[in-house]
Design goal:
Layout lengths: L9 H24 L4 H16 L6 H11 L1 H27 L6 H27 L4 H14 L3 H9 L1 H9 L4 H7 L2 H16 L5 E3 L4 E3 L3 H18 L1
Helix pairs in contact: 1-2, 2-3, 2-4, 2-5, 2-10, 4-5, 5-6, 5-7, 6-11, 7-10
């Protein structure tokens, strides 16, 4: 029984992980609710979660805040782009709903397909922003490529990301306390488990200098070259 409660026991490590996810969720939720800081908050969240998945030592709030400040400008622009696209899609859906009787069913299916593709691409944007240093254009382009190269894990990430909505649908407001504690970081942690292996295939070599990671090669060039090699390998099959 004593070993069960040792600081290094699997049980205590699991409890610590749960506590870290809860703390991180509360911090992220706070910044997501503040206008224009949602992108930086999600980027900081994925930065910390990827370190958790890789069992790299990190302080939750300190690591989150470090990534939040470092990526604030680009992540905010990416957030605004996503919000604008979401608004356009929302208006389009309202128009479709109002004119459903006059529209061919194929139009609705095509629209749903486009929305699904865009959603799966969006799942990679902030993890990529957290891990790789790229211009906004290349981050968006790489998100498209990763969503394709990462199949079928991309589909798995999409399903996992919808867990909070499914819980709300089946359990109504009774599940709200759980969502406040783990609604963002719980699904995102499972997503990090999925995209971690994919990211490792494209990561540049880094030099560890203690508190900081210093990239020894240009991230964008290595990432693009790695993507190109993987595409060529798939084409040969």
């Amino acid at each position: 029984m004593g070993k069960l409660f040792d600081l290094d026991s699997p049980f205590i490590r699991a409890l610590n992980r749960v506590a870290d996810l809860m703390i991180l969720n509360l911090v992220v939720l706070l910044f997501v609710l503040i206008p224009f800081t949602g992108g930086a908050a999600l980027t900081g969240m994925h930065y910390v979660l990827l370190k958790m998945v890789r069992n790299e030592e990190t302080y939750v709030v300190k690591g989150f805040w470090k990534s939040f400040k470092l990526n604030f400008k680009q992540a905010t622009i990416l957030w605004i782009i996503i919000m604008v696209l979401a608004g356009i899609i929302g208006v389009d859906f309202l128009w479709v709903r109002a004119n459903a009787a006059m529209l061919p069913s194929i139009y609705i299916y095509i629209m749903l397909g486009i929305v699904l593709i865009l959603y799966m691409i969006s799942l990679y944007i902030f993890p990529l922003q957290a891990r790789f240093e790229n211009p906004i254009k290349n981050t968006l382009k790489n998100a498209c490529m990763f969503s394709i190269l990462g199949l079928p894990r991309t589909v798995g990430m999409a399903v996992v990301s919808l867990i909070p909505l499914l819980l709300l649908y089946f359990f109504d407001i009774r599940v709200v306390p759980i969502l406040i504690m783990f609604g963002l970081t719980g699904p995102a942690y499972l997503m990090a488990l999925m995209y971690n292996g994919l990211f490792k295939k494209f990561e540049p070599k880094v030099a560890d200098t203690g508190d900081e990671e210093v990239r020894t090669d240009d991230d964008d060039e290595e990432l693009q070259a790695a993507i190109k090699r993987m595409q060529e390998a798939r084409d040969k099959k």
